[in-house]
Design a protein that fits this description.
Order of helices and strands: EHEEHEHEHHEHEEHEHEHEEH
Bound molecules: glyoxylic acid
Structural class: alpha/beta
Radius of gyration: 21 Å
Strand order of the largest sheet: 8-7-6-9-10-11-12
Helix content: 25-40%
Length: 310
Amino acid sequence: MTRTLLFAAAGERAESWTKAFAEVAPEIDFRPHQPGEDVSDIPYCLVWRAAPGLWSAMKNVKIIFGLGAGVERLLADPSLPRDVPLVRMVEPALTRGMVEYVLWQSLFHHRKVWELEAAQGCATWRPHTYPAPWDRTIGILGLASWASRPRKSWSSSASRCGAGAARPSRCEGRKLFGQDQLPAFLAKTEILVCLLPLTSETRGILNASLFAQLPRGASVINAGRGGHLVEADLTAAMASGQVGAATLDVFETEPLPDDHPFWSTERLYITPHNASVTDPRSAAWRISRQIARYEAGEKLENVVDRARGY
Ligand code: GLV
């Protein structure tokens, strides 16, 4: 079988990917998709958003590699081949970037940097206090395989950091709350970080009822998907002071429209869906290892469970 990988992710830095595959995985014939070309014999595909007609044209596709960690858009496509393994992107640079983002934003909210900015804005030397990290409770909603890493870096004694998970048994060694313990988890959480996959169960989870269960003035950080958040509920919770501050990396509509009220909401910080970005070099290496595993008859890693949705 030829080792051709179709790159079906227009607008996603095709030159960097071509260069990365040439350097790291030269055994793979990396082929950016040209409209109209015959792709019926190509066995592997790396895709972000599938163009209409892609899957019916890829008649012999054997593995579909998602370019990102989230695969909800691919799964929502009814033409996605049902019996072909869909592999989520898990690669060290993407993970490192997410760990860095969660730590950065957790510290930003922990220190309430906006209070310093406000004082500086009026040239005022104002005492600024904050709790020790071990007296701050961060709750991570969702259990990415790496979710314990910000916790470890936060502080060796930040034992109050929890995680909400659907499958608690997989996570020994950290303070973990199962789905049925969500109220207890939220009641303790001063900085809530959402890293959930977007599924029918998690859509709209960041809503008025959830915000009401957080301690008053809590912070909310969403680096999952825009669909997790009910935007109007966040606006209302911030207006009432129930949510004190927020950072959002992901939005229902991206790019965030120019006239969106979030742009001018006080203490709401926006990053443009770049909490972390897949690195072509480490991703190329991971994909080449996965193809080698497949060709050797071994089990693929990080295959999406279609029923679960991630
Ligand atoms: C980015 O949003 C990703 O899914 O990796």
